[in-house]
Design a protein that fits this description.
Structural class of chain A: mainly alpha
Number of helices of chain C: 6
Largest sheet of chain C: 6 strands, mixed
Number of helices of chain A: 17
Mean pLDDT of chain C: 71
Strand content of chain C: 15-25%
Oligomer: heterotrimer
Number of strands of chain A: 0
Distance between the termini of chain A: 50 Å
Shape of chain A: globular
Mean pLDDT of chain A: 84
Radius of gyration of chain A: 23 Å
Order of helices and strands of chain A: HHHHHHHHHHHHHHHHH
Structural class of chain C: alpha/beta
Largest sheet of chain A: none
Shape of chain C: elongated
Strand order of the largest sheet of chain C: 1-2-3-6-5-4
Number of strands of chain C: 8
Chains: A mainly alpha, B alpha+beta, C alpha/beta
Largest interface: B-C, 55 and 51 residues
Helix content of chain C: 10-25%
Low-confidence stretches of chain A: none
Distance between the termini of chain C: 41 Å
Strand content of chain A: under 5%
Order of helices and strands of chain C: HHEHEEHEEEEHEH
Low-confidence stretches of chain C: 1-68
Helix content of chain A: 55-70%
Radius of gyration of chain C: 20 Å
Chain lengths: 430, 392, 237
């Protein structure tokens, strides 16, 4: 068995391809844990960033600068009474959040955090991804219906109509990106998520810049559609709190409600990952072909460590700026510990970056590379996450009919046009 | 949309009549109308307003407002209190514009007693009332934008409203229910630095309005959500007794401060902003401009506060002669009237408040028919109701 | 009319002065009627022939005010009033108090007068409909319409007296805004309006017993039965 475990280390393919169930399972667990933590972090960041947009401080009490707020929230939600309305369809009501959660987490099996840092590399990866993420709507519809209440029902109907409409434009935008993968010597494209990133590497260009502005328009359409797909502002019709109180999850409370939230945020990360994979070069660092010299390799490999060092520095500054009263003592110590933790991670990453360069075992080199890949991927996704928050702070909410109009009358024709133009330009160029 | 313009006033009357919840409007195939109960606990009904919506999918076929959840019987209380004792109660009606309520009440009683507040008191009254108008409009803007989904303006407006409330607090010790005026004048002399505070506020607030406008006025989504939403024609607005910014946005240039000047508004130079289409966007623009005009009034008033007493010659015991009076002022939400019947005793024999929110709310049904659910909250927000005043 | 009655007696007495129109401007120097003339004249052209007749009346006024400090209602003259007086005779009395004009009208004339004020005299905005209760009178209620004309920038009140249990014509077909206002009057006083599209309580709950703004309804009084059934508490106090 140890051999079975160890033999995969150093492999350049995903555990799925290598047929290694153990590591596939490990990856699933790591991703599940990682995404859950990311959702918590996102929760904190959203509250904090939104607060700063709105000249507030946001959470400040639970932990230094509210750092422990997500944990407090999670604890509170778990301890809360789980109310199931008497008139609701009990079983369906119970199962609905799980459907949503399953759909948004299953998607992660094909998201490539690196060339081998994925559970599996399906050759229909992107298709699988779109298909599974569409299942999330089932959870929402079922939740709205099972609640046996008007607001959730309307929210569910809105949500399903919205997701179905935007999937069309979204799909067409994806197809035009997939089309670009076939612009190579052999003329064969790929649906594999890893393949798409590798195609960008081969062609030496992120697809967002390919056939400018065609790639960019397709990306923009996807970027808009993915906001609608995840029911986020300004397309948060399904849970528009000023209209439908809380939309499809009005009747949910406690843990079940938090599952919906978890699913929503996981879905946000998932669609952002698709956008990053398809148009922004996935796990690749900037200029992987142009700046190939070992010196550049080394400089770029320092980035993860430096980022954490920066975060640690910010946390240390925060510690120093905390008021001197004894009231803040615990918070100060907490923040200092947090800063030290970040600093330790930074140190570790820097050591790995330096040591991994001279390491002779392939396992160590793989490990160092893996950190780089995941770092760049997460960084790109984080930009989208920030955009999600920014949208929410800035814009009012669209009305339902306007949303539909934009989906069908604006985005769909543009996506179709871009697709055709991409094909034509592709034929001409090759 | 103008129903009354088609020549039949009864059409409008019938349109305002209440919802028939039992008979479907369009009995075709298997479609069901959905009756939705919005409120009294709902994030966007600005208090305890309950609106029963009859929906065809998302489309609103009709509405019925159920009000009275905040009914405190202010008019009955008035009959059992002396004129002076009743003064603080009026603050609790439109608690977002307590100063305006107080001004209307004090002026009505003064008129009944045939006395007038001295000039200095009039100036202080105008300044505080106009500050309160700005505060009320800020609160409206924040909540209205929040209803439409823009979260951020709420916090900006509340940040700036705080400055006004601070001035109130320094002046009379209270922030919201100020009870700033007395029958015959003002209770308090201005504190040292009052003028400076007010002028500071003016220079602080001028760029803030631009900040609000930068977020909303040309925002595409905001335009789409507010243009041609909740349209009410001038004829309908008049027929329904709608007043205030809602009426002015429909193009009727009518403001009691100009039409029948009270306090000493005739001394000040200001414009009445009007709209053209009577839609939600015009009402938004009108209120934004009204804030600017209020600033103009305050600027003129604060520069010219005369010296002199702040209380007129009123007896200790307010005992108006037998008679009845109707006096109304332009509150931030519309015409706020007080109809007082005096029997010569120290208590009003009958006191009727003509609340602008109550009457304006009646137009909700006309304004939202045929629109979508999302527009209902937009229109409730744009009418700018305060349930404390609707229910009294 | 300035009698010092302790019983609630509002200024317009039930048995009014003879319908004489004195010259505008009582001893107190009321400015309002004169100021109104130009505005009123332009809209009430047919009333002109009637005006001289009114003027020719002796300016003798029965109630010479004894105490000038206390303002008293004085007759209100205007072409509008003349026109209606000629038509309706003694069923109508026009007075001015503190510069505010009002018509005291017999109950039977109400629908007619209101409609004509709306259609002929451009009183297109019904500010308020309200009532007052005088339990010691035979006709217990005053119903008051406060009207405003945008074209003339002029306010007036129309009031009438009705007995308890009697009903009065609804003004909803004249001013749609009267809908809720009349409902509130019904809710608070129990005055019924004929022809109202949906006369039911508006501020109080539907099943409530009693009309709170009547004078015989105590300030602490409540419908205990309703409270016990619907709120499940002994008492709302």
């Amino acid at each position: 068995m140890p051999n079975f475990v160890m033999s995969y280390l150093g492999s350049t393919v995903t555990p799925g391809q290598a047929g290694n169930q153990f590591w596939a399972l490990m990856y699933v667990l790591i991703i599940f844990a990682g995404v859950s933590v990311a959702v918590m972090a996102m929760n904190w960041l959203e509250r904090k960033a939104l607060a700063h947009f709105q000249i507030r401080l946001g959470p400040m009490r639970v932990g230094p600068h509210g750092l422990l707020q997500p944990f407090a929230d999670a604890l509170k939600l778990m301890l809360k009474e789980d109310i199931i309305p008497t008139e609701a369809d009990q079983f369906v009501f119970w199962v609905a959040p799980l459907i949503g959660l399953l759909a948004s987490f299953t998607v992660y099996t094909v998201i490539p955090f690196g060339p081998s840092q994925a559970v599996s590399d399906m050759n229909i990866g992107i298709l699988f991804m779109l298909g599974v993420s569409s299942l999330a709507v089932l959870g929402i519809v079922v939740a709205g219906w099972a609640s046996n209440s008007h607001y959730p029902l309307i929210g569910a109907l809105r949500s399903s109509a919205q997701m179905v409409s935007y999937e069309v434009a979204m799909g067409l935008a994806v197809v035009s990106a997939v089309l670009m993968t076939s612009m190579n010597a052999s003329g064969t494209g790929t649906l594999s998520m890893i393949g798409i990133v590798q195609a960008q590497q081969q062609q030496g260009i992120w697809f967002i810049f390919k056939f400018f502005p065609l790639g960019f328009i397709a990306f923009a359409i996807f970027a808009i559609a993915m906001v609608a797909e995840t029911n986020r502002a300004p397309f948060d019709m399904a849970e528009a709190e000023s209209e439908l109180t809380a939309g499809y999850h009005t009747e949910y409370s406690g843990l079940r409600w938090s599952l919906f939230m978890l699913a929503e945020y996981a879905a946000m990360i998932a669609v952002s990952s698709i956008a990053v994979t398809l148009w922004l070069g996935g796990w690749m660092r900037p200029f992987p072909n142009l700046l190939q010299a070992p010196a550049w390799e080394f400089i770029f490999s320092l980035f993860p460590g430096l980022t954490f060092a920066g975060l640690a520095a910010i946390a240390f500054i925060g510690t120093a700026r905390m008021p001197a009263q004894s009231f803040f003592r615990v918070q100060r110590i907490g923040l200092a510990v947090f800063a030290a933790l970040l600093g330790f991670i930074a140190l570790l990453l820097l050591v790995i970056a330096v040591a991994g360069r001279t390491a002779d075992t392939s396992v160590a080199a793989r490990f160092r590379e893996g950190i780089d890949y995941v770092y760049w991927f997460v960084l790109k996704v984080a930009v989208f996450m920030y955009l999600f928050i920014w949208y929410r702070a800035t814009w009012p909410r669209y009305r339902f009919d306007q949303l539909m109009r934009i989906g069908w009358k604006v985005m769909l024709p543009i996506a179709l046009g871009v697709l055709m133009l991409t094909a034509i330009v592709g034929v001409i160029v090759s | 949309m103008s129903i009354s313009e088609k020549g039949n006033p009864n059409a409008l009357a019938n349109a305002v009549s209440n919802l028939d919840l039992d008979t479907p409007e369009k009995p075709y195939l298997d479609s069901n109308e959905l009756i939705i109960n919005m409120g009294p606990q709902h994030p966007a009904t600005h208090g305890v307003l309950r609106v029963i919506l009859k929906l065809d999918g998302e489309k609103v076929l009709g509405t019925e407002c159920v009000i009275g959840y905040l009914h405190r019987g202010v008019e009955k209380i008035a009959e059992n209190r002396t004129y002076t004792m009743f003064n603080p109660y009026v603050d609790r009606m439109d608690y977002c514009a307590a100063v305006s309520n107080g001004l209307g009440y004090c002026e009505a009683v003064e008129k009944l007693m045939n006395v007038e507040a001295p000039a200095r008191a009039q100036y202080i009254r105008v300044i505080l009332t106009e500050l309160n108008r700005i505060a009320s409009h800020q609160l409206w803007l924040g909540t209205h934008a929040l209803d439409i989904g823009a979260m951020t303006p709420l916090f900006y407006t509340f940040r700036d409203r705080e400055e006004i409330l601070k001035i109130f607090e320094r002046y009379c010790g209270a922030r919201l229910t100020t009870h700033a005026f007395r029958i015959g004048g003002c209770q308090y002399e201005t504190y040292a630095g009052f003028e400076k505070d007010v002028t500071n506020f003016l220079s602080f607030f001028a760029p803030k309005i631009d900040e609000y406008e930068a977020l909303l006025t040309t925002n595409r989504i905001w335009l789409e959500r507010t243009k041609n939403v909740g349209v009410i024609s001038a004829a309908d607005a008049i027929a329904l007794g709608v007043t205030g910014p809602v009426l002015r946005a429909s193009g009727v240039k009518w403001d009691l401060r100009k039409a029948q000047p009270y306090a000493n508004y005739s001394k000040f130079d200001f414009e009445i902003p009007i709209g053209e289409n009577g839609d939600t966007y015009d009402r938004y623009l009108v209120r934004m401009e009204e804030m600017r005009q209020s600033m103009r009034i305050i600027e003129q008033a604060v520069g010219g506060i005369p010296e002199g007493p702040i209380m007129g010659k009123v007896p200790k015991v307010i005992k108006p002669p037998v008679g009845e009076i109707y006096h109304s002022i332009e509150a931030p939400k519309g015409e706020l009237g007080y109809f007082i019947v005096s029997d010569g005793s120290t208590q009003p024999y009958r006191l009727r408040v003509r609340p602008p929110s109550f009457v304006n709310l009646q137009a909700l049904d006309i304004m939202v028919r045929g629109l979508l659910i999302a527009d209902v909250v937009a229109v409730i927000g744009t009418i700018d109701i305060v349930l404390g005043e609707v229910d009294r | 009319m300035a009698e010092e009655v302790k019983t609630p007696a509002p200024p317009p007495p039930p048995q009014p002065q003879p319908a004489k129109t004195g010259p505008s401007g009582g001893p107190e120097g009321e400015k309002k009627p004169t100021a109104e003339k130009p505005a009123a004249a332009e809209s009430a052209a047919p009333a002109k022939p009637a005006a001289p007749a009114g003027k020719s009346d002796v300016p003798a006024k029965a109630a010479a005010p004894a105490k000038p400090a206390v303002p008293t209602p004085v007759p209100w003259t205007s072409p509008l009033v003349e026109k209606y007086r000629n038509q309706y005779g003694s069923g109508l009395e026009a007075l001015t108090y503190l510069g505010q004009n009002y018509l005291s009208v017999d109950r039977s004339l109400i629908p007619d007068i209101l409609r004509r004020l709306r259609e002929d005299e451009q009183f297109d905005y019904c500010v308020d409909v309200t009532a007052a209760h005088y339990p010691k009178r035979e006709k217990q209620f005053d119903v008051i319409w406060i009207l405003y004309s945008f074209a003339r920038n002029e306010r007036m009140r129309v009031k009438t007296q009705i007995a308890d249990g009697a009903s009065i014509a609804s003004a909803v077909s004249i001013w749609p805004t009267a809908n809720w206002l009349e409902r509130e009057v019904y809710d608070m006083f129990g005055i019924r309006f004929d022809g109202h599209p949906d006369l039911k309580r508006i501020l109080l709950p539907d099943g409530w017993k009693g009309y709170p703004l009547r004078k015989d309804y105590g300030i602490l009084q409540q419908d205990t039965e309703w409270v016990q059934i619907n709120l499940g508490i002994e008492s709302g106090q």
